[in-house]
Amino acid sequence: MSDAKTLSVYAAKAAEYAKLTSGEEASPSLLRFISALPQGARTLDIGCGPGFAAGTMAAAGMEAEAWDPVPEMVAMAAERTGVRAREAIYSDLREADAYDGIWCNFSMLHTPLTAWPDQFTSIARALRPGGLLHFGTKLGVGEKRDGIGRLYSYMTESALLALLGQTGFTVEYSRTGEEKGLDGKLAPFIVLQARTDA
Questions:
Q1: pLDDT top residue among 190 and 10
Q2: pTM for this entry
Q3: Alpha carbon distance 120, 196 (integer Å)
Q4: Cβ-count burial of 178 within 10 angstroms (0-12 exposed, 13-18 middle, 19+ buried)?
Q5: CA 108: distance to chain centroid?
Q6: In this predicted model, which residue has the larger pLDDT, 9 or 97?
Q7: How far are the Cα atoms of 60, 77, 84, 156 from residue 176, in angstroms, in the given order?
Q8: Band of the pLDDT at 39, cuts 50, 70, 90?
Q9: SS3 assignment for the chain
Q10: Alpha-carbon distance 123 to 140, whole Å?
Q11: Residue 14: per-residue pLDDT
Q12: Position 11 pLDDT exceeds 70
């Protein structure tokens, strides 16, 4: 999440992106994530964008943190009641046994594929035993830029599931589909939830 061109796109289109994702706070995946965590859980929304998910977690009584590398996004997330927002990226995640749940919704896909194993390992370490990961990404192969200049890393479903297994996760739930993104194009995606060993 340090690609300068990708970050500049999100900075310029922060308000547009917030409008596009404004229904996220009521998404079935988010409600499922929240219901699977203990009361008062400590959570992290990494790559939080405008902070809709973190805001919903905080409203549910959770200790919600939100990270994003784009200052404009961090400012919007910080306006959500109960959310502690900061400018940070995946490589800043160095804690161990710190979170009950980590929400990574369509953010790791803007980092190079070579970084994914280390990033999943860091997430597994940062979660408490039996901790829950929500992960969303677009499906495909390789790395390329979209029509508005964002860097995308794509992985197939089978490769992603294998990588999660190798980095200490057991998938409990997954769903695939297609949706339109900020570039206006339909793309296949997967969202899943997985736990570390208890």
A1: 190
A2: 0.91
A3: 11
A4: exposed
A5: 7
A6: 97
A7: 26, 27, 31, 11
A8: very high
A9: CCCHHHHHHHHHCHHHHHHHCCCHHHCHHHHHHHHCCCCCCEEEEECCCCCHHHHHHHHCCCEEEEEECCHHHHHHHHCCCCEEEEECCHHHCCCCCCEEEEEEECCHHHCCHHHHHHHHHHHHHHEEEEEEEEEEEEECCEEEECCCCCEEEEECHHHHHHHHHHCCEEEEEEEEEEEECCCCCEEEEEEEEEEECC
A10: 23
A11: 59
A12: no
Angle between helix axes 157-166 and 116-126 (nearest 10 degrees) is 50
Measured distance CA(51)–CA(66) in Å, rounded: 7
Query: How far is the C-alpha of 30 from the C-alpha of 181, rounded, in Å?
Result: 18
What angle is formed at CA 110 by the lines to CA 107 and CA 114, rounded to 5 degrees? Answer: 110
Burial (CB < 10 A; 0-12, 13-18, 19+), residue 114, is exposed
pLDDT tens digits, 48-92: 989 999 999 999 999 999 999 989 889 999 999 999 999 999 999
pLDDT digits (tens, 9 = 90+) for 139-185: 999 999 888 888 889 999 999 999 999 999 999 999 999 987 767 77
